[in-house]
What we know:
A: 252 residues, alpha/beta, globular, B: 264 residues, mainly alpha, 10 helices
Amino acid sequence: xTAKIECRHISKVFIQKxxxxxxxxxxxxxxxxxxxxxxxxGPGQSGKSTLLRIIAGLETPSxxxxxxxxxxxxxPGPDRGLVFQSYMLFPWKTVFGNVxxxxxxxxxxxxxxxxxxxxxxxxxxxxGFEKHYPHQLSGGMKQxxxxxxxxxxxxxxxxxxxxxxxxxxxxxYFMEKETARIWETEKRTVLFVTNNIDEAIFLGxxxxxxxxxxxxxxxxxxxxNLPRPREHTDMAFLKLRHTITAACELTL
Amino acid sequence: xxxxxxxxxxxxxxxxxxxxxxxxxFGAWELIVRLGIVPATMLAAPSAVGNLFVEKLTNPNxxxxxxxxxxxxxxxxxxxxxxxxxxxGLPLGLFMGWFGVVRGIARPIFELIRPIxxxxxxxxxxxxxxxxxxxxxxxxxxxxxxxxVINAFVGVRMTNPTLIQMARTYGASDWQIFKTxxxxxxxxxxxGALQIALASCWTNLVAAELLAxxxxxxxxxxxxxxxxxxxxxxxxxxxxxxxGALIGMVIDQVEKRLLAGIRR
Lengths: 252, 264
């Protein structure tokens, strides 16, 4: 099977203040299978967000390249939907207006747009909140809008950058379950960046761990062969958690 | 899980406070004149101004027009200048904010002209337009266009860069980003510009009319000075103030309606 996304020897060096070189990523190579849920797990400052932004096309790699379906990525595009840690909803648009944004920018006719937006608002469990503005929603609900918005653009790949980083523990746990449910309802290739090992094991088909401290480097690839839906308290879950924790440093 | 609608009422005291404040202001002013602290030849009491106002509603003497005609003339000039300032200044500022080419062409010229106070343009204006309507409109326009350009420009420049990136991942073109993202997020600044430009236009209106006019509220003030009638001067000033405040309130209401989602 060919890879949906392939990163080939990606390195990234930022130039700061005109002269300082900051080496963020070094020699990252990974292949993401079609409709796979791949989690990139690493501590803060391991360049995982940068990796995601390179795949999204918002940054260009200093070395190496990203292939999507075998074609090199040259910039951002609607085939990759990005969900941001800080929600990034349009504050002057309602839930509905935010979700229908992608199709609207692509010129999808009104009726079609309406149907798509409504479908994904229902899918993320926000039915009844279509006319609410973002500031009327809780953090978890905002991120549901973010996910619905990314889905509504019908991307082949979903890129989620620590989407639940700003949520409290309970809401986060709940949103992880919801993410698994949504993904199983409508499968997409998902790249999910997190620094939370429980989140990684709960969601991922496979987990890529990055080594901490810049520059970020590949550590290992873990297969998560646990049946879904998963339980945080399952013995096999805890065992894998223990193995991964023992093998890598997840703190800064 | 839907939210319930409830009515929240302000305490009565807070509702009445502005009226009380106005009342005290005029009361103190009246007393100052009545008690002779400031002689009536130098400042007119509110009651005298009120009387003159009632009289000027029908009597065109001694300055040649009733108060309503003065106000109407001033309104026309101010609104023409104001609308032209919005119509030219806002798009220019918005485009300058997002399109580098427009910024490169327009900004240096704008920065050169900006520090020149509109009043300094009056002599040239008289050469070009005479003392008719369009000369005054031009001066008013100059006063209004500067805040329009600056605010619209800054508003676009302050657009959240992550939102722009997000729009790019959705495949939005430059023009789409400008239209659906930069312009809406500049709106609070643009509405700020509506208020600032209005104040600026209204101020310049009086300046323009002081110099070259035969009708208008600024002219009323000038005539009051020439005829040594402080009540007429104050009537002109108060009229300018009240009308400015009224227009400001209207714009405030429009702003609230349009920006429902942005302000919380």
